[in-house]
Design brief:
The protein is 35% helix and 23% strand. It is an alpha/beta fold and 413 residues long. The model has no long low-confidence stretch (mean pLDDT 93).
Length: 413
């Protein structure tokens, strides 16, 4: 990313940061390196940083760290109209569509994403282009291809198929060789697979063990597409790091997740998004399967909250997708609050707590040394996470990438 010409100072705002603390009538100073140098009262910030030449933008509102969406598929093409409109074998078309999705995601306030299932390592290509500043997009952490058994969940969307412990160890190493930041393995059926049910176990214990042991030996974490306790519990006992979806998790399972510090990405929107499914004309079997899973999915999230499981935000739907008058990302966070999490906990789940799972202490917070990724809101997120609907500006690495009211123009000159 190109260095800033001068330090920049955003002042007159209230900073709301679950990790670093809140500051009223505050300022945020971002250096030419795009990182936060100080946060707090304006005069203290300037004095501590010794940056009297900073270009200042004085405004009002609430500043929060940029959001981190932990369950994203930039190349998503669900069964039905979405997949029919895309030539899955055309790399150029696919990566262009992914780049467009990345730009929309960033504009929606998601400054970092975790991709957990893409095709032909095009995510690696896009990640490199975003890092170079060639195209706009969120910071990308990726699992490359999801891993599945032959004919298992995700095979239609280019999950890498394998069988047996040796096969899954090899498939894991192939993702690591390509530059994967983590590994995703599909241990059960799911919503989008026509010839499977949500709770069908799809891997043997030896296969799951091979993935986890191989990834851990390389210092990488493993998260699992996993629907029910029948498939989650055995994987937890083998050292699984994270659970995606968890449509049906009983008390024993969430208690073990809390005890072991397992991460959970509920993606609660996927079982209550009739509007999105109808818009994209997904097959009736898929929509009904998703909506039928809704009540138990909701109860599972509430059990996880009550047990103290480490929960982070991930939408599965495109982060920017219009949904219930906002984006899928914001609606996911609203659902999390409605299920029993406090607004502060939900904000942490989409910022600092997500960064913790990524092993990225310089993301998800506005403390000194962190990247200057922030959102400017009109409403106070401490009064309810729906304040994210009042998003009016997005800054990534100290650069304004969205500015609805043209408040930050002087900042980027």
């Amino acid at each position: 990313m190109t260095p800033l010409a001068d330090p920049v100072l955003l002042s007159g705002v209230t900073v709301v940061d679950p990790a670093a603390g809140d500051h009223e009538n505050a300022a945020v100073l971002i250096g030419v390196d795009g990182r936060v140098h100080a946060t707090g009262p304006r005069e203290e910030v300037l004095r501590a940083a010794g940056a009297n030449t900073a270009r200042e933008v004085r405004t009002s509102g609430y500043v929060v760290p940029g959001l981190i969406n932990m369950h994203v598929h930039l190349g998503l093409a669900l069964p039905g109209a979405m997949s029919e409109a895309v030539d899955g074998d055309n790399d150029a078309q696919t990566v262009l569509l992914m780049a467009d999705a990345a730009a929309r995601t960033l504009s929606a306030g998601v400054t970092t994403t975790r991709l957990i299932g893409e095709s032909r390592y095009l995510d690696i290509t896009l990640r490199a282009a975003i890092r170079r500043g060639a195209v706009p997009g969120p910071r990308i952490y990726t699992a490359c291809h999801a891993l599945a058994c032959t004919g298992g969940h995700g095979w239609e969307s280019d999950a890498l198929q394998a069988d047996g412990a040796d096969g899954f160890a090899r498939a894991t190493r192939q993702q690591l060789r390509a530059g994967a930041d983590l590994i995703k393995v599909c241990v059960s059926g799911g919503i989008a697979g026509e010839h499977e049910s949500i709770d069908t176990p799809q891997l043997t214990l030896d296969e799951v063990r091979a993935v986890i042991e191989t990834a851990h030996a390389w210092g990488k974490q493993v998260t699992a597409h996993a629907a029910s306790s029948a498939t989650v519990l055995p994987a937890l006992r083998l050292g699984l790091d994270g659970v995606e979806h968890g449509y049906s998790l009983d008390t024993e399972t969430v208690d073990l997740m809390a005890q072991q510090g397992t991460w959970y990405v509920p993606t609660i929107t996927v079982s209550r998004c009739r509007e999105f499914f109808e818009l994209h004309q997904v097959p009736d079997w898929m929509m009904q399967r998703a909506l039928d899973a809704g009540p138990e999915h909701w109860a599972s999230l509430q059990r996880a909250i009550a047990a103290g499981v480490r929960i982070v935000m991930g939408s599965d739907m495109p982060p920017y997708a219009p949904f219930d008058g906002t984006t899928a990302t914001v609606r996911e966070m609203e659902f999390m609050e409605e299920a029993g999490m406090s607004a502060t906990d939900v904000l942490a789940a989409g910022t600092s707590r997500a960064a913790e799972w990524l092993g990225a202490p310089d993301l998800g917070t506005l403390s000194p040394g962190s990247w200057g990724d922030l959102l400017l809101l009109t409403d106070d997120p401490r009064d309810g996470i729906s304040a994210l609907r009042s998003l009016r500006a997005v800054v990534q690495g100290g650069r304004a990438v969205r500015d609805d009211r043209h408040e930050l123009i002087a900042w980027t000159m």
